[in-house]
Amino acid sequence: MRSHEDLVAWQLSEKLKDHVYEIIVRPAARSDRDFCDDIRRSARSAPANLSEGFGRYRPRDNARFVRTAIASLIETINHLGHAFKQQIISQDEHRDLVHLAKRAKGATIGYLEYLTSCPPDGPKPRWTHGKNRQNNAEPANAEPANAEPPNQEPPNPEPENPEPENPEPENPEP
């Protein structure tokens, strides 16, 4: 994985953000500036935190940002409920967008589970894994021990079509 854009969690979160941006330009939404600000921030936060965490390389540090992304997706679901109650979006739009948000949340939770299964500071440099190394001594051409290791995480095991484990009812109460 070379970029945060390769993460399914980021792709779904970005798609949700794009849909939210389409909603907040509607006349019914524009009249509620607080709503527009709140849903814009929460929808923008998830993909932004996933990308920033990805850039941190170390699983423990990355996981902090992924947890924030999960919370932002949950907040966005809450704002979508408000949009439906205020008749800014239709019941079908609400259903589809909540489904998309839950898929993004499921993929993000899967990514978090992967990160928490990794060593906190990431994988050990490759030269420490060889059987012919005595006492894990550094080879002559190795980088200094305090150098930042490149991102050597194994491929991300995100599910291809994540679905929430306990889906909420599809039809919200009006």
What would you say this structure looks like, in words?
With 174 residues, the protein is mostly helical. The chain has a domain of 119 residues: de novo design (two linked rop proteins) (Up-down Bundle), CATH 1.20.1440.60. The N and C termini lie far apart (43 Å). 55% of the residues lie in helices and 0% in strands.
Task: Briefly characterize the structure.
The chain is an all-alpha fold and 174 residues long. It is built from five helices and no strands.
> Uncertain regions: pLDDT < 50 for 5+ in a row?
135-146
State the order of secondary-structure elements, H for helix, E for strand: HHHHH
CATH-defined fold name of one domain: de novo design (two linked rop proteins)
Radius of gyration: 20 Å
Overall geometric form? elongated
Strand content bin: under 5%
CATH architecture of one domain, by name, is: Up-down Bundle
Largest sheet, in brief, is: none
- Please identify the oligomeric state: single chain
Intertermini distance: 43 Å
CATH superfamily grouping of one domain: 23S rRNA-intervening sequence
The number of helical runs is: 5
Structural class call reads mainly alpha
What attributes does this structure have?
5 helices; mainly alpha; elongated
Show the helix and strand layout:
Layout: H1 8-23, H2 27-30, H3 33-54, H4 59-85, H5 91-117
